[in-house]
Specification:
By secondary structure, the chain is an alpha+beta fold. It has four helices and eleven strands, in the order βββββααββαβαβββ.
């Protein structure tokens, strides 16, 4: 889904309410690309990037992280699917694009409220990294960015997600810039 500003939205609250993913080639016919991810309030986001393209995904906390069975089918199997899942591609479909040492992997996931600087779903992050490494073994290990999840059921939490950078990420590619790729996550910038 693309918004009025031309930014590809990873997740669009109005059009679907399930995990979503996509792929965008970079360069050539796509000299500039913006991909936005918002509404991270316990969910996990994924960006896999290299000069050939960007794979992006949004995995819902509920129900995807609720049970081992849900996590297996809705995240791990989704990543490794050779076919579309609910209309969205798995990372396996782009294995040849990303199986290289110049690929970068970024996982955006909530911080544990009781153990700051630790992922809330630390064991699940290990499973995600293992699945990604199985699909694209030449790529370096994933970098995790932790965030404080806003409370999506409170008025203040919804306001923060609508009106601030909280729970948002933006991937930008512009072939005319050096470096040509960058990832903003909330207030952090990661040039690539």
């Amino acid at each position: 889904m693309t918004n009025d500003a031309g930014t590809i939205q990873v997740y669009d609250l109005i059009h679907h309410q399930d995990n979503s993913a996509g792929f965008q080639p970079l360069g050539g016919a796509n000299p500039a690309v913006n991909i936005g991810l918002k509404w991270l309030c316990g969910c996990t986001g994924l960006f896999v990037v290299n000069p050939g393209g960007v794979y992006y995904a949004h995995y819902f906390e509920s129900p995807s992280f609720d049970t081992d069975a849900n996590f297996q089918t809705q995240v791990i199997d989704f990543l490794g699917s050779p076919a579309l899942v609910n209309g969205f591609p798995g990372l396996l479909q782009y294995q040849t694009v990303f199986n290289s040492r110049d690929t970068r992997i970024y996982i955006l996931t909530p911080e544990d409220e009781n153990a700051p600087t630790t992922a809330q779903y630390a064991a699940r992050m290990v499973q995600i990294r293992t699945a990604i490494n199985g699909i694209i073994p030449l790529a370096p290990n994933a970098v995790e960015y932790l965030y404080v999840a806003p409370e999506s059921t409170s008025r203040a939490g919804r306001y923060a997600m609508r009106s601030t950078v909280q729970g948002r990420a933006l991937f930008q590619y512009d072939s005319g810039n050096t470096p040509p790729m960058r990832l903003y996550f909330e207030t952090n910038l990661q040039p690539m």
